[in-house]
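Why should sequence recovery work at all? Because a backbone constrains its sequence more than one might expect. Tight turns favour small or flexible residues, buried strands favour hydrophobic ones, and helices have their own preferences. The token representation captures these environments compactly. In the example below, the structure is given first.
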């Protein structure tokens, strides 16, 4: 007997998961006291029927909304400022963050900033910076993911690029965690294969780095293992057949699981991906996918035993580090991921700068191997030239 792929979950927030649950958007807004929310999305989604259908449905339920869609693929501080201005001008009382990782991150950041007097960069996820915020002024958030990648719908942070310094900053506050998530896999069925592949590998990267992080958090580690199993079993199907609702549902769950798990930590995959996205405007999930096997090789001495256990849990024929690495490489080939950074528009001209930024990135602290700029530059060159060394 098969189990229906739907449910109401309370971890780490209220999640309404299942096909057709977008029909509960108005109810979710009302549950958080919203009467005039601002829907934050990206320009591509704003032009699609799903956004028009969502706004029409909540309007029919007596909830007036407006759409803000000035969000870049790698959202920048100006996008957040413009969203805050739209929120205030429209007299809104909450945010619907609707879309992929960029829209979700931007929407959550807008909700944070509508009542703050400090600049957004003062809330970077360093030390106790989050305590500087006026927590009572943070707007309520309903999150509606339309991709299966970042898992930002169940996260307490946003990644926003500071245009002045060309750095991606992780902005954090506990109240940035959405109050309600509508996780409807039907909304992900229109995602094209190359984006399904890139976002799916992002979900894998979150689960994998959380699992490998050296901090003690067995609950997050267990979630990460199951998230990776779902990716292994269902990502190729989702790429091959985007209309397969079972595959889409499992990948949507895997994405939320990755974001939930990485409170345990991330690592060099993200440490490299953040500056590369800021300097070269590369797609975050795709960048993670490209650098993944090189980072595994870089970290091998510290993670080999863990990956042997993981390979067994995943049922790989070769339950060894090399077997796990081979699975990653085979998966990338199967779903069309580039093998080198050079293939996605990155060159070596700024290798030293990228390495220094990566070493300073907050995700560097939880990499299994200590990260310094010199070795990171060598790792980056490996990613550019396709050298997989132990």
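From this structural description, the recovered sequence reads:
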């Amino acid at each position: 007997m098969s189990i229906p792929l739907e449910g109401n979950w309370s971890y780490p927030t209220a999640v309404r998961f299942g096909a057709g649950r977008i029909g509960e958007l108005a109810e979710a807004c009302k549950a958080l006291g919203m009467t005039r929310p601002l829907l934050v999305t990206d320009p591509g989604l704003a032009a699609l029927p799903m956004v028009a259908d969502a706004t029409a449905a909540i309007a029919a339920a007596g909830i007036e909304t407006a759409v803000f869609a000035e969000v870049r693929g790698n959202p920048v501080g100006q996008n957040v400022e413009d969203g805050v201005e739209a929120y205030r001008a429209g007299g809104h009382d909450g945010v619907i963050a609707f879309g992929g990782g960029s829209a979700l991150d931007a929407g959550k950041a807008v909700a944070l900033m509508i009542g703050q007097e400090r600049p957004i960069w003062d809330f970077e996820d360093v030390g106790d910076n989050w305590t500087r915020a006026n927590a009572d002024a943070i707007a309520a958030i309903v999150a509606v993911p339309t991709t299966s990648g970042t898992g930002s719908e169940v996260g307490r942070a946003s990644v926003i690029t500071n245009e002045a310094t060309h750095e991606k900053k992780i902005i954090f506050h506990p109240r940035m965690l959405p109050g309600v998530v509508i996780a409807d896999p039907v909304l992900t069925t229109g995602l094209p294969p190359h984006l399904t592949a890139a976002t799916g590998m992002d979900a894998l990267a979150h689960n994998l780095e959380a699992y490998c992080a050296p901090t003690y958090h067995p609950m997050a580690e267990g979630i990460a293992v199951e998230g990776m199993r779902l990716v292994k079993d269902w990502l190729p199907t989702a790429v091959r057949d985007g209309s397969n609702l079972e595959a889409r549902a499992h990948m949507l769950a895997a994405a939320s699981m990755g974001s939930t798990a990485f409170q345990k930590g991330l690592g060099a995959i993200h440490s490299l991906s953040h500056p590369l996205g800021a300097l070269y405007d590369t797609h975050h999930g795709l960048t993670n996918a490209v650098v993944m096997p090189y980072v595994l090789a870089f970290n091998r001495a510290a993670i080999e035993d863990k990956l042997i256990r993981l390979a067994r849990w995943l049922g790989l024929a070769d339950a060894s580090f090399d077997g796990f690495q081979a699975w990653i490489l085979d998966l990338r080939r199967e779903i069309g991921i580039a093998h080198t950074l050079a293939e996605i528009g990155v060159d070596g001209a700024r290798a030293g700068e990228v390495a220094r930024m990566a070493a300073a990135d907050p995700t560097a602290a939880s990499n299994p191997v200590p990260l310094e700029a010199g070795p990171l530059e060598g790792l980056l060159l490996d990613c550019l030239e396709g050298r997989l060394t132990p």
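A few observations help interpret the result. The first helix runs from residue 25 to 31.
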